[in-house]
């Protein structure tokens, strides 16, 4: 018989699998049927649209009046040089939102992206080719690099750059791939629950987990517009990375951190009870059966449970109980 609910089930599990330095999978479950796609689709859009990256927005090349010009001694036309420059993935080293960087190269040289590293910026795809110079060549240029989101065409940057510089289309988005997969998952013999697996890859300007966290924070801030409406109060506290649900953390406290007397602790230790969650799972009736546990120790343990909000009236849901048992088994 189908159980009557008064609220949808709240997922309890989050896992982060780092596939490589710039790719990760973030897995969350179990969701009730239909809730997984409701959450996953807007999150994917936010990951792609709101992740902060860096891009060059203008370049000033000594001896070049426009992008169709040429530089004496440089094999590439200015147009090709600009295309190569826009493909370089910069990172600003400090908290600045914009930096201007000057470069000077001369003599026979193949310039690659890592040659642009300095105390202001870092290049994350250092092997990329930029230009090739002859022995008598001299190349001096200035690049302005800015933090931003999304894509901004060069026409919209004319007010940002000087009249003697070349504006560049700015591709800020550091996310190269953001996909999700939804699969059924069994919960208490019920196959209608779902699991989301996000697969995120970046260009290494930021990490994939940071991109996911940024999207969550953006979603929280957007939803906060409804704060105060019908007594709704949406928490906009930044989401922290973590493999376990914060709700599980109190249960995973070692019993030696609970401030119990030596007599009570020794009784629990002899019974092999290491974590607070084990006491919550047992309940008062089962705790009474612990060998050599006197009434004072029992009262002390029950008082400890009450103080932390897990007294006799507290009851774990079946799913939460199963998840807690699984987590405790991993710790032992």
Task: Describe, in plain words, how this protein is organized in 3D.
The chain is of the alpha+beta class. It folds into three domains: 13-51 and 175-231, 2-Layer Sandwich (Gyrase A, domain 2); 53-171, RNA Polymerase Alpha Subunit, Chain A, domain 2 (Beta Complex), CATH 2.170.120.12; 246-331, 5' to 3' exonuclease, C-terminal subdomain (DNA polymerase, domain 1, Orthogonal Bundle). It is 27% helix and 29% strand. It has seven helices and 14 strands. The protein has helices at residues 35-50, 78-86, 208-223, 262-270, 276-287, 295-307, 318-331, and strands at residues 13-20, 23-31, 52-61, 90-92, 98-106, 109-112, 121-123, 129-133, 138-149, 151-152, 166-167, 170-171, 175-187, 190-202. The strands form five sheets. Strands 1-2-14-13 form a four-stranded antiparallel beta sheet. The protein has a four-stranded antiparallel beta sheet with strand order 5-9-3-11, covered by helices on one side. A two-stranded antiparallel sheet has the order 4-7. Strand 1 and strand 2 form a beta hairpin. The two termini are 36 Å apart. Residues 236-245 have low confidence and may be disordered.
């Amino acid at each position: 018989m189908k159980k009557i609910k008064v609220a949808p089930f709240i997922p309890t599990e989050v896992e982060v699998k780092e596939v490589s330095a710039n790719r990760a999978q973030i897995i969350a479950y179990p969701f009730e049927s239909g809730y997984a796609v409701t959450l996953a689709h807007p999150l994917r859009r936010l990951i792609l649209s709101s992740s902060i990256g860096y891009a060059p927005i203008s370049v000033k090349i000594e001896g070049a009046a426009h992008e169709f010009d040429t530089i004496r001694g440089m094999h590439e036309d200015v147009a090709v040089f600009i295309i190569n420059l826009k493909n370089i993935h910069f990172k600003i080293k400090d908290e600045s939102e914009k930096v201007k960087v000057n470069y000077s190269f001369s003599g026979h040289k193949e310039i690659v992206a890592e040659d642009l590293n300095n105390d202001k910026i870092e290049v994350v795809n250092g092997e990329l080719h930029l230009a090739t110079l002859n022995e008598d060549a001299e190349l001096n240029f200035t690049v302005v690099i800015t933090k931003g989101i999304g894509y901004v065409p060069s026409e919209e940057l004319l007010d940002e750059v000087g009249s003697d510089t070349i504006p560049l289309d700015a591709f800020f988005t550091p996310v190269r791939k953001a996909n999700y997969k939804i699969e059924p998952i069994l919960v208490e013999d019920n196959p209608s629950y779902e699991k989301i697996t996000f697969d995120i890859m970046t260009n290494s300007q930021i990490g994939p987990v940071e991109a996911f966290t940024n999207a969550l924070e953006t979603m929280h801030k957007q939803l906060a517009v409804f704060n105060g409406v019908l007594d709704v109060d949406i928490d906009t506290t930044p989401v922290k990375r973590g493999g376990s649900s914060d709700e599980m953390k109190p249960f995973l406290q070692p019993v030696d951190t609970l401030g119990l007397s030596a007599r009570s602790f020794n009784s629990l230790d002899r019974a092999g009870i290491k974590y607070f969650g084990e006491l919550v799972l047992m309940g008062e009736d089962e705790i009474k059966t612990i060998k050599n546990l006197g009434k004072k120790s029992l009262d002390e343990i029950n008082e400890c449970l009450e103080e932390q909000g897990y007294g006799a009236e507290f009851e774990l849901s079946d799913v939460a109980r199963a998840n807690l048992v699984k987590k405790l088994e991993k710790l032992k």
